[in-house]
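Problem 12. The chain below contains 107 residues. Write out its predicted structure in token notation.
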Amino acid sequence: MKRAVKHLMLGAEAGSDWCVEKIKDYFLTGVCTKEEYTLAIRAHGACRDEMRSDSRDAAAKMFDELSRNNIKSTEDLKRLGSNTAAGARPAPPASGMKKRKHKKRAK
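Solution.
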């Protein structure tokens, strides 16, 4: 079991929520110590803080807003208007775009 706890610790350090939950279960059943559990929580938090960025937070906020409005396609976004999602780029036109013809090179 100590080998499993060791691998779960590595997963927690990489930011896995599942690994932290498993270590918590192991702590509650007495398989791992309180020190191992607190170390896993601190390592997990440090990894999450390192991954946090303004652009990632903005993308998560936009995704939440789109999910709340049940927007699954560009047609839904057009139906509700482009101002529905803050910062969302308008969808490209579906028709009317001509394909560029490439000239063949002379040999």
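Discussion. The first helix runs from residue 2 to 13. Students who got a different answer should revisit the alignment rule from Section 12.3.
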